[in-house]
Design brief:
Number of domains: 2
CATH class of the largest domain: Alpha Beta
Distance between the termini: 13 Å
Number of strands: 19
Structural class: alpha+beta
Low-confidence stretches: 1-5
Helix content: 25-40%
Oligomer: single chain
Radius of gyration: 29 Å
CATH topology of the largest domain: BirA Bifunctional Protein, domain 2
Number of helices: 17
Shape: elongated
CATH architecture of the largest domain: 2-Layer Sandwich
CATH superfamily of the largest domain: Bira Bifunctional Protein, Domain 2
Mean pLDDT: 93
């Protein structure tokens, strides 16, 4: 059952009646503006440490505004808690100070209403910092009641769907999104300080590229063409490297028409950056530096707790090759990995369903047997070429590519390559992907002739990386579900 109950219809009717009465009395229940002198956080920071006598000696008046969260009447006096965007402060109101009419109005206001308060600071007998009000007025009327005080908003479906209520009654939720904002701010600082340029690339694209994923499709009426929502900014960012922008990054909204889970949302945010004259080894070191920097700046430490597990982000991090991890961490025999029939038989014995070719089978074995065990920061590198159509092959083994994925907490947080910059080889890889698409693989990469043309103008040796910012925020805020770190996650219609 939703926390915001349909039984509140009667309460809403009562509030609407009060609204009509206010208007009839010539009172504007939705003020155009209200000038505050201080935000609550500022008052607490400046005056929380002052003694009672020091507060009594102050002549300063304070004007604050916020949402009335609680109210407690004691005869001719009333206490209420006022909450603005920075914090909560107790307000004390006396009928003798406000006057009979204003005090009567205060008692008639509803929890959830926005009030403006003017008065002086003092401490109650229990020592709580409080404003003794000389005037209280309505700033904005609430027609819907908040969830019950002692229960808050617990139903997760309602919390995600009505995030505005979630933020009102669950203070810890706001902290998650403050942390998310700080993470992105610090990432920008880290990259800017290293000579990277932040850019923007198209979200509506003629061809979706840069990842193996199923896109969302739309239609542009004026141009009379179908377009796709971006699944990754990669191919446009590499076009910029071709054009001489040697270090670029984008904080990019991406869209993939795939399943929804605790770690997947069809709309998500990805950091992608590209660095000319570098390879994937350079980016492994840069990634260690970035995560250590973020941990210190956001958390104050390189250690964190995630879902009951202590994780240490201090570099250096272990590095395993893809097949090495399958053997040493996943416990899969090397003989099984080399033999298609044995690999299929082994997968079936472990209850692993799979579709596609041998490499998809091996990928599924990795996901099931290796990934959950990668709790501490770990680089997995040197992937099969068939799984990475945009990566450069290793110089000593053309069956593998120079690619790594970063795993923390049992799931992937980053993916990086030494970028393929040979236009002829890239065209052949695209053709192989197009063949898979013709055979029914809706996630296979499309042929992008313009990107081939860009590579024919020559792209310098380049390495690129994508980091999932939603998952990174999950890690830093100890959130178990990606919907906890997206303000408005995708849900079925009510």
């Amino acid at each position: 059952m939703n926390d915001i109950k349909e039984e509140s219809t009667e309460q809403i009717a009562g509030r609407k009646a009060k609204l009509a009465d206010l208007k009839a009395r010539g009172i504007n229940p939705y003020r155009h503006r209200f000038k505050v002198s201080h935000r609550i956080e500022e008052i607490i920071e400046r005056f929380e440490q002052l003694e009672t006598e020091e507060l009594e000696g102050m002549e300063e008046e304070f004007t604050v505004a916020g949402r009335m969260m609680t109210r407690r009447k004691h005869g001719r006096t009333t206490f209420l808690d006022l909450k603005d965007g920075t914090g909560s402060l107790q307000i004390y109101a006396m009928r003798d100070d406000l006057g009979t009419e204003e005090y009567k109005d205060l008692l008639d206001y509803d929890l959830g209403d926005f009030l403006g308060v003017e008065g002086k600071l003092f401490r109650t007998r229990t020592g709580e910092l409080t404003i003794k009000s000389s005037t209280v007025s309505l700033v904005s009327k609430a027609l819907r009641p908040l969830p019950e005080k002692w229960h808050g908003l617990k139903d997760v479906e309602t919390r995600y769907r009505q995030r505005y209520v979630d933020l009102i009654v669950n203070p810890e939720v706001k902290k998650v999104f403050q942390a998310r904002s700080l993470i992105i701010k610090k990432i920008r600082r880290f990259l800017d300080d290293r000579g990277f340029l932040e850019v923007e690339t198209p979200i509506l694209q003629h061809l979706p590229g840069g990842a193996v994923a199923r896109p969302f499709k739309t239609h542009h009426n004026a141009l009379g063409i179908d377009l796709y929502l971006r699944i990754a900014p990669e191919l446009y960012l590499k076009r910029l490297v071709v054009g001489g922008m040697e270090r670029v990054y984008e904080v990019a909204k991406n869209f993939r028409n795939e399943g929804i889970s605790k770690k997947h949302n069809p709309e998500f945010t990805l950091l992608e950056f590209y660095m000319a004259y570098a390879d994937y080894n350079h980016l492994m070191t840069l990634t260690e530096e970035l995560f250590e920097f973020l941990a210190r700046e956001v958390l104050g430490s390189t250690s964190l707790d995630y879902q009951g597990q202590k994780i240490d982000l201090s570099a250096p991090w272990p590095r395993y090759t893809y097949f090495q991890a399958l053997v040493e961490i996943g416990g899969v025999s090397a003989d099984i990995l080399k033999n298609d029939d044995k690999a299929k038989e082994y997968a079936l014995s472990r209850g692993i369903d799979w579709e596609g070719d041998r490499h998809r089978l091996i990928e599924q074995l990795f996901d099931e047997l290796v990934e959950p065990n990668l709790v501490q920061p770990t680089f997995i590198k040197d992937y099969p070429a068939q799984l990475s159509p945009l990566s450069k092959t290793k110089e000593d083994d053309s069956s593998l590519v120079e690619r790594f994925e970063l795993y923390i907490g049992g799931w992937e947080l980053a993916n990086a390559y030494t970028e393929l910059n040979d236009p002829q080889e890239q065209e052949e890889r695209f053709r192989e992907q197009a063949q898979k698409r013709d055979e029914g693989d809706l996630e296979a990469h499309m042929m992008d002739a313009d990107y081939i043309r860009a590579l024919e103008y020559s792209m310098p040796p380049t390495a690129g990386e994508g980091i999932g910012l939603d998952r990174l925020t999950m890690l830093f805020t100890d959130s178990s579900n990606i919907r906890e770190v997206i303000l408005f996650p995708q849900l079925r219609p009510e």
